Amino acid sequence: MAKNIRRYLTLLLHAHLPFVRHPEYDDFLEENWLYETITETYIPLLDVFEGLERDGIDFRITMSITPPLANMLADPMLQNRYLAHIHGLMELSAKEIERTRWMPEFHKTAQVYSQRFSRCRYLFEDVYNKNLLTGFRRFQEMGKLEIITCGATHAFLPLMDLYPNAVRAQIQIAKQDYERHFGCPPNGIWNGECGYYPGLEKHLEEAGIKYFFVDAHGILYADALPRYGVFAPLYCPNRIAAFGRDLESSRTVWSAESGYPGDPDYREFYRDIGFDLEFDYIKPYIHESGLRTNTGIKYYRITGKTMYKEPYNREKALAKAEIHAGDFLQNREKQMEQLSDLMGGRAPIVVSPYDAELFGHWWYEGPEFLDSLIRRIAQNTGTLELITPSEYLERCPDQQVAQPSFSSWGNKGYSEVWLNESNDWIYRHLHKACERMNELANTHRNAGGLEMRALNQAARELLLAQSSDWAFIMKSNTMVEYAVKRTKRHINHFTDLYYAIKGKNIDEDFLNTLERRNTIFPGIDYRVYCD
């Protein structure tokens, strides 16, 4: 009986970067975060989708595209800067083909990079007209991709629960921005860092959100014992569905010890010609200051836990991706066969969420792994099926009602990553700014002209300060100076605007500068912070 039950797999790719845009500089180092992931993740994912469509392969992928990322992908200045970036990589890769001509261990790989960069340029400029959101939107409109949203600036909402107006603003602004880019309201949301606290679902309901995600313990420690564990969603008391992360399928990809991306045949991320080659040769392709940076051209494979790295072999790496895709599918089939027997006729769903940037950027062969996995599922004669959360709720609307517990997917599962000795100083400033933004909105409900512009920019500066990325960077001890500077800068800009609005002394030149620099959410309305 159980063998005829459908078994569902949701692959969720969480695509996010903090909003980094610096028109005041010609070459800003942290903007490379966007350019690298466009080349190594977002375009390769779209290329996979294009290939599946071309070959008539049906598929379902769920993908969160956060508002900061969407705003950067749609920004003309960043689009043009990326185009210059990819042209530079095409030039460098052409030089690499010549340089490695008598180095057979590297020459084939140099050709691979040249072809990849040319393909990226073609898709970015000729197919998507420099805006990759049009590609993702097209696959959503075809019914292959379900795009969900995230809080406006990927804030960690459990540390904002004392300020419900600020939480509400994060969600409402995200919804409005999603509609601007994708032409419809979002069905689901990935709360920043998978953070959840009881009561958050009330704000989600107000925004028309139908479902969200929690880590496994958010379901397992619900106020009622979940009858089917994380393999069926729970309805919150207001009927907003919470899907739980499956630990087993996550571990096979995420684990530093046993995860697929650590296989010795895969490309080594940490060896790049930006650091390996002579300075005079590589200088035109790194930061203008002369600071060595990654170029994306890497010639070695992981090899093992050794300083000595062997040359990368693309064919072997792709063959290993095929093997791992088969292994992943086989393990899911076994897992779901057991679940079907245990769940007494109910259709299990395994939810496997990953950072999208893992596929291609960190794990170079990740897009090929996904492509192979999707094709195998489509050809599979069993009952395993890719599904989006919206489709699952339509097919299986009868679910248990319970209140999920406070949780996140960070280290130890709660708030420690975003509230610790490295970053706790930021919260007294963020909380005070929340109080002041609420005050401004309530006392200036009918503002217009310059005052309205200043109020809207104050809201932008607060939102940007609330990005969870800054606290995460401080904790992880990478690019800390930039994260501290961004947090202080947005809080200081907000505070200056607050006193200028209160004192009816707004400096229009200062306001113009902020509006040109921080262009996120062009349609923002500060009144979202009103009581």
Overview of the molecule:
The protein has 531 residues and is an alpha/beta fold. The chain has two domains: 2-74 and 131-267 and 312-409, 7-stranded beta/alpha barrel (Alpha-Beta Barrel), CATH 3.20.110.10; 420-529, Up-down Bundle (immunoglobulin/albumin-binding domain-like). It contains 19 helices and nine strands. Strands 1, 2, 3, 4, 5, 6, 7, 8 and 9 form a nine-stranded mixed sheet that branches. α1 packs parallel to α13 (366-379). The longest helix has 29 residues, at 314-342. 46% of the residues are buried.
Précis, in short:
The protein is α/β, with parallel strands linked by helices. It has helices at 32-54, 67-73, 76-99, 104-127, 133-141, 164-182, 200-206, 216-220, 247-254, 273-276, 279-282, 314-342, 366-379, 389-395, 426-443, 449-465, 468-476, 480-502, 508-517; strands at residues 7-15, 61-65, 145-150, 188-190, 211-214, 234-235, 241-244, 349-355, 384-386.
Q: Would you tell me the overall average pLDDT?
A: 96
Strand content: 5-15%
CATH homologous superfamily name of the largest domain? Glycoside hydrolase 38, N terminal domain
- Count of separate DSSP helical elements: 19
Helix content: 40-55%
Count of extended strands: 9
CATH architecture of the largest domain: Alpha-Beta Barrel
**Rounded Rg:** 24 Å
User: How would you sum up the global shape?
Assistant: globular
Main sheet specs = 9 strands, mixed
Q: Count the domains.
A: 2
CATH class of the largest domain: Alpha Beta
Distance between the termini: 54 Å
Structural class: alpha/beta
